[in-house]
Amino acid sequence: MVDYKISVEYTEWVVRQACAWTFQSADFPKVSLEEKSWVVSLASGFDEATIHLLERNLNEFRLREIIDVQTAGLRMKIVTHSLENTYKNIKG
Predict the structure, then answer these.
(1) Alpha carbons 80 and 43: distance in angstroms, whole number
(2) What is the pLDDT of residue 45?
(3) Whose CB has fewer CB within 10 Å in the chain, the N or C terminal residue?
(4) pTM of the predicted protein model
(5) How many CB atoms lie within 10 A of CB 67?
(6) Distances in Å between the alpha carbon of 66 and those of 25, 46, 61, 63?
(7) Are 57 and 40 in contact (CB under 8 A)?
(8) Which of 88, 66, 92 is nearest to 14 (CA)?
(9) What's the rounded Cα separation, in Å, for the pair 55 and 51?
């Protein structure tokens, strides 16, 4: 197995999503946590193109995670407002 280390600053969700978008399901790597890094282990090793794609996907999913956190309150307000209006319409 060949290991590739990723900063522990990324959440597990980000690391696993990036791996899911980088690797085929048959080649899915083992992901584990060490003290200061995530370790992605792959039997066939990593070529430069795969590492580049993995790093791009890490950044993509980190950005999605940040946007999700920043918009959580607004999304909750929209859902609450929609449910309140639906309840008012049903109640008559």
Answers:
(1) 47
(2) 85
(3) C
(4) 0.81
(5) 10
(6) 26, 28, 9, 5
(7) no
(8) 66
(9) 6
Both tokens of residue 3? 């290991």
Q: What is the mean pLDDT of each run of 10 residues along the chain (92 residues)?
A: 94 97 90 96 91 97 97 96 92 76
Task: Compute the residue count for the chain.
Answer: 92
Q: Running DSSP on this structure, what letter comes out for residue 23?
A: S
CA–CA gap between residue 9 and residue 56 (Å, rounded): 16
Give pLDDT, residue 6. 97
**């607004």: which residue's tokens?**
74
CA nearest neighbour of 15 among 43, 35, 37, 36: 37
Distances in whole angstroms, Cα of residue 73 to Cα of each of 34, 39, 64, 78, 84: 33, 33, 15, 9, 16
What's the confidence (pLDDT) of residue 26?
Answer: 82
| Sheet containing strand 37-42, strands side by side | 2-7, 37-42, 30-33
- For residue range 1-24, what is the model confidence (pLDDT) as tens digits? 899 999 999 999 999 999 999 998
